[in-house]
Amino acid sequence: MVAYIVRRSVMLIPILVLISLVSFAIIELPPGDWVTYQIENLRASGIELNEDEAERLVKMYGFDQPAWKRYIRWMRGILFKFNFGWSFQWGKTVNELLGERLPLTLVISISALIVSWIIAIPIGIYSATHQYSVLDYIFTFFGFLGLTIPTFLLAMVLAWYIFKLTEFAPLGLFSIEYMDEPMSMEKFIDMLKHLVLPLIIIGLNGTGALIRVMRGNLLDELKKQYVITARAKGVNEMQLLFKYPVRMSMNPVISTIGWILPGIFSGEVLVSLVLGLQTTGPLLLRAVLAQDMFLAGSIVMILSVLTVIGTLLSDILLAALDPRIRYSAAAAR
Amino acid sequence: MSDTGRGDLLLEVRNLQVHFYLFEGVVQAVNDVSFDVHRGRTLGIIGESGSGKSVSAQSVMGIVPSPPAKQLAGEIRLHRATPDGGIETVDLGRLDPRGQEYRDVRGGEIGMIFQEPMTSFSPLHTVGDQIGEAILLHIPDSTPQSARERTVDLLRRVGIPRPDRAVDAYPHELSGGMRQRAMIAMALSCDPALLIADEPTTALDVTIEAQILELIQELQDDLNMAIIYISHDLAVVGGVADEVMVMYLGLVMEHADAETIFDEPLHPYTRALWQSIPKIDGPLEQLVPISGNIPSPFAVHRGCPFYARCTERIQGVCDESPPPMLEPRPGHTVRCFLYADDVDLAANGATGE
Amino acid sequence: MTASTEVFEEVLVADQADQDDRFYYASQWSLIWWRFRRHRVAMVSTVLLLLLYLLAVLPGFFSPYLPSTRFESYQEAPPVRLHWMDKSSEGGGFIGPHYYGYEKTLNKETFKYEFEPILDNPIRLRLFAPGSEYTIVGDWTSTIHFFGTDVEEPPPFMLFGADRLGRDLLSRTLYGARISLSIGLIGVALSLILGVILGGISGYFGGLIDEVIQRLIDFLISIPQIPLWMALSAALPRDWPVLKTYFAITIILSILGWTGLARVVRGKLLSLREEDYAMAAKAAGTGESRIIFKHLLPGFTSHLIVTVTLAVPTMILAETALSFLGLGIQPPAVSWGTLLQDAQDIVAIAQHPHQLIPAAWVMAAVLLFNNVGDGLRDAADPYSDH
Higher-confidence residue: A88 or A32? Predict the structure, then answer.
């Protein structure tokens, strides 16, 4: 098992390198080097910068050197000093900004993933065991809607509708009256109320796909010989269902994390923008609009790395749950 | 062949009728099937795929998928031993297949071995876990510890080397033959009175097949079990069965003790089957395949379902009305007009071909 | 074959045997078409989708005004209602389609403008009425609109209401469809080219090339798309001409869009190249590329069409999302995404819910494409699980 984890982790290294290269390419993408751009900005806003000072800045950021050296510089900063760079727009380090925003992004994304599982798995089980029943059709239809309706449009429409019906604006993390209050029970409940809508909307996108995966796999598993064998042993139907076929069809569901997670991060960015949640989403948009590229590149990189780590965790979980994977991993060694 | 002789009556199946209601139509999978099974004896059921042999056995187990299947008629009477040494009779066909009472019978009084040793075990659970599950369900007062010990004993009994390690193995770590042995251990885990073996060796190599067959017979002698052995392989059935039933499209075509049915088959279908396989000890004859194909399972036959492929058919008789079950010799039944009284034939105004 | 499936497999064999000859000799495409026609939802969706594209091809004809025409003092006016029965007198009868102009008043309590229809002056509409001049294609212009009125200087007939600057939302939605619906098609066409080439190479040659391309796909799939698209579009100068931005956006979308198509192509190629007819072609000395394009591609064109149909809505959505964020198509060019920028503020939506109408169009287009794709999938592969 340990060997398996090590092997899977080592296999990640090239992907992580690729991610860092793409992120660096993003930083370098805007035409012209951004130090010159920033210097011009500073001058335009009336701050006097003499040529020496400008030169010092160009040198400091390595713009007198080739791109690959700047890449190594940036990576060295991240790996050894955990320093992602400087945000011009905010006048803060990227670390500081991410430290403020990333926790909420993580909480919302992981909760949305869990919400989508909690909704999708029971529905998938019900739909598979009651194939072609009325509820199966209804669930399949809503799963289809979840797959097709774009998250941010849904967020807009639902937020408006909730506001219209209840006068409660599901925007931001707290209502205005709690904004400057210290944390209390009421404030916490208010926060939960604000989180319900984004969690469901972000989760919903994955839910439709998950229902399909769970239902399809369970239908396949239910036809397998081992189910009949277990039935021939006299096992109670309910126990049988959960001990064998449901367990089996959980494995493909776990492996969907790898492709649901990017969707959740994407959805989180858009939904947070629409619903005004202070996560990395709005930060990324502002960074991109202002061409604050260290910040933008770092956010893309961190979200990608988080996805990759999520996939790794799901692979490890899968190996822990499925002896065949452990077996073949041991055999491959 | 078992030499225990004719034992007590264990199972009586009478006029069993099971149909599948599918989107494409109705399949009359089992039509009017009756047979008896005695303790210590083996009933072989022979038939091509779609003959209803498996569905008949699954009906006894109560594991026919329903829907789409429905038992329309018939009784499945099990004469089981009570704890005080007496015999009680239950009609399994009337029990709820998902209910507690039927579940006690399944895996308890009746054990079953399946065709595919590769897929018969769940890949996510150890062999010991899956065998122990049956023991915990059916043996009173068993604990996980005692179930494990019994499992190891069973594994040793079916000839699995190092049973104390095999008990913790996952199915994919065992070979096909070993898995089938484990499967037998599972079916026997609760000392069943009846073992249903549904093509247990079809997926195995010939040498392993011989070992498994030997094992089954050995266990039968030890435990005085009744066995229903289902196969399309005539040689295998000839080797294990005391009596043989030949099925075709849901109907019993012929039923007799094994020697009689192999030496003096009466039904044209049985004879055709016999001719289509090579014999080691018999004279060297030309192999004759059965002409034509098995008809669509949805087809409804007015007369004999074998009519279209039969070489001895009587036009105007065999295709007009269903052949009756006849008993030309004591203990030897056959469903064919050829053995009907001449008077009946004449009355129908039929002419032989 | 397990005991319980025995019966079912027999069924399939028997069922095929019962079919008539017409079925046996039909081409693959006829078979797909027959099955697709039976899928009612998909058929209806196809017709609606074609209508939608007709609107998008001729926005000038179908929209009553130009997208840039501003009606002063009609800022954020709600949708005008279409009437059939005369409202100017009690119990007025049927006078055909018509509408009433708005009277704008200031609500002294809320300090907001309110629009009330003036019911005494019905303005009748007719088909093919003259209006402002628009361009059909190149220098070819026309003044005939699908509907309009002959009344001199009529109040504007804004069926979807007006935007913040008093422009007709219906006209803008129709003009926006031109960009939003075409970007999906062009983006998918680009992805298809990339996907077929890379997937084809990967699946046909296998080995190291396959490994590299597969890892590349794994990598691209593991990056959250929206953030990457956002970051990439940051490189687009805001002052580029519309057409240039349009193509740049299309390319950005295709960079991530080809992976799904490449997977389909590769998977199918892997299974098909082992088939006898591919072997036979190879044995006959046919060149590699000829085998791929002449012998193998036709074998899974139907699957490709399904994947392409299902990829178009993703593209449409991506453009909408980017333009909505202000990173895609830039005003004054109109796309559904830029129209939705007006709807970013929920309080504003609450006051003027008609700003959400373009969102309904996006959802409709996405749903229709998905329905058609689902129908095609069922038709192309009746035994697939979905």
Answer: A88
Q: Where are the domains of chain C?
A: 60-167, 171-380
Instruction: Judge whether B173 is closer than 8 Å to chain A, CB to CB.
Output: yes
Residues B112 and B225: their CA atoms lie apart, in Å, by 12
Domains of chain A and any CATH numbers: 19-83 (no CATH), 101-332 (1.10.3720.10)
**Paired sense of beta strands B69-81 and B87-91, if any:** antiparallel
Contacting A residues, span 288-307, partner chain C, CB-CB under 8 Å: 288-289, 291, 293, 296-297, 299-300, 303-304, 307
Q: Decide if C223 and A262 are in contact by the 8 Å CB cutoff.
A: yes
Question: Which residue in chain C is spatially nearest to A24 when comparing CA positions?
Answer: C231
Confidence check: pLDDT of A79 > 80: yes
Residues of chain C contacting residue A273, judged by C-beta atoms under 8 Å apart: 325
For C166, the token pair is 């008093």
Q: Is the pLDDT of residue A30 over 80?
A: no
Question: What token pair was written down for C214?
Answer: 């597969």
Interface test with B, best of A229, A236, A248, A321 (most B CBs within 10 A): A229
C171-380: which CATH architecture?
A: Orthogonal Bundle (1.10)
How close is the nearest chain C Cα to the Cα of A259, in Å? 7
Signed CA dihedral, A45, A47, A48, A52: sign only: negative
Q: Are C260 and C211 in contact (CB under 8 A)?
A: no
**Contacts of residue C68, Cβ cutoff 8 Å, sequence gap at least 6:** C167, C332
Cβ contact A270:C318 at 8 Å: no
Surface-to-core class of residue A8, CB atoms within 10 Å of its CB (0-12 exposed, 13-18 middle, 19+ buried): middle
Residue A330 pLDDT greater than 80, yes or no: no
Percentage of chain C with pLDDT > 70?
Answer: 89
A178-222 pLDDT, tens digit per residue, is 777 777 788 888 888 888 888 888 888 788 888 888 988 898 888
Q: Is C140 exposed, middle or buried (0-12, 13-18, 19+ CB in 10 A)?
A: exposed
Map residue A256 onto helix, strand or coil.
coil
Q: Between chains, do C221 and A259 touch, taking CB under 8 Å as contact?
A: yes
Tell me the pLDDT tens digit for each residue of B51-104.
Answer: 888 888 888 888 888 778 888 888 888 888 877 777 788 888 788 888 888 888
Exposure string (b/e) for A59-90, b if CB count within 10 Å is 16 or more? eebbeeeeeeebbeebeeebeeeeebbbbbbb
Q: Does A153 touch chain C (CB under 8 A)?
A: yes
- Test B298 with C1 for CB contact under 8 angstroms: no
With CB atoms and an 8 Å threshold, state whether C6 touches B296.
no
CA C4 to chain centre: 45
Which residues of chain B have a CB within 8 Å of the CB of C11? 22, 24, 27, 297-298
Instruction: Compute the mean pLDDT over every residue in chain A, rounded to the nearest whole number.
Output: 83
What's residue B199's pLDDT?
85
The residues of chain B scoring below 50 in pLDDT are 1-7, 343, 346-347, 349-353
